[in-house]
Design goal:
- The structure is a single chain.
- The protein contains one helix and eight strands.
- The protein is 5% helix and 54% strand.
- It is extended and about 65 Å long.
């Protein structure tokens, strides 16, 4: 038998190559595909068309007593464009877009939980 498999953690870098102090990272790619129905097809789906492609990356971060690690809310308020790279074995997805949907909560472990999403265009490398 060979070596047991290992499962590394995902890492995210936002702007400037610095790794974020975050957890619960998730993302998605939207391919924009839609079914098309025609009268000739009797109103039934007769094919698929391509649409606009986009991606999102969401992560959570704990807020220390010194405050936010980055100016997330300021960048969100100013509609600034940011870049995030999510690295996992064999691939990196880069999302260029804007912050959206900031949320926060005080949780049972005694810290403030902050969640934010970046939406926009993406590349895979």
């Amino acid at each position: 038998m060979g070596e047991p498999l290992t499962y590394p953690k995902g890492r995210i870098a936002v702007e400037g190559g610095e790794l974020q102090d975050c957890y619960d990272i998730s993302g998605s790619i939207t391919d924009g595909k839609k079914t098309v129905s025609t009268m000739r097809g009797g109103g039934m789906a007769s094919g698929v068309v391509s649409g606009s492609k986009s991606a999102s990356i969401t992560f959570k971060s704990a807020i220390s007593k010194e405050g936010f690690e980055r100016d997330y809310l300021g960048k969100h308020q100013r509609d600034e464009t940011v870049q995030a790279r999510f690295k996992f074995p064999g691939k990196t997805i880069t999302v260029n877009g804007q912050w959206t949907n900031p949320t926060w909560a005080s949780n049972i472990d005694g810290f403030i939980d902050f969640t934010i999403t970046i939406i926009g265009s993406y590349t895979l490398s």
